[in-house]
Design goal:
elongated; about 15% strand; two-stranded antiparallel ribbon; alpha+beta
C-alpha cells in the first residue's frame, strides 16, 4: 500500500518493518525502511514509538519541500490545456 496520509504511521496499524519512506533529491531516489532505525541507536525508534510525530518532526526522514503556489499554477495550466484540447476535438 502507498499513501501520503501520516495518520497511518501508527504502531497499532503497521509494524516497523512494514513502513518504508521514499526520499528523492538531485542524486536520486532512496527507499528507507523504518526497521533500519533500531532502538537505542542515534534515532531511537522503538516498535511502540509515535511514528507520525517523529515523521512530522523530521526525526526519520526530511519532509519534502513543496512550493504550493507552483503546484497550483501547474495544475491550473494543465487544466487549461485539457479544456483547450476538449474544445478543439
Amino acid at each position: 500500500m502507498t499513501t501520503h496520509d501520516v495518520k497511518l504511521l501508527s504502531p497499532y496499524l503497521f509494524r516497523k518493518d512494514q513502513i518504508n519512506f521514499i526520499t528523492r533529491d538531485d542524486e536520486g531516489v532512496e527507499i528507507i525502511n523504518l526497521d533500519s532505525f533500531k532502538a537505542n541507536s542515534e534515532n531511537d525508534i522503538r516498535s511502540n514509538s509515535n511514528f507520525e510525530k517523529m515523521y512530522i518532526k523530521e526525526a526519520i526522514v526530511p519532509l519534502p519541500q513543496t512550493d504550493i503556489n507552483q503546484v497550483i499554477q501547474e495544475f491550473l495550466e494543465y487544466e487549461k490545456e485539457i479544456q483547450e484540447t476538449n474544445i478543439s476535438s
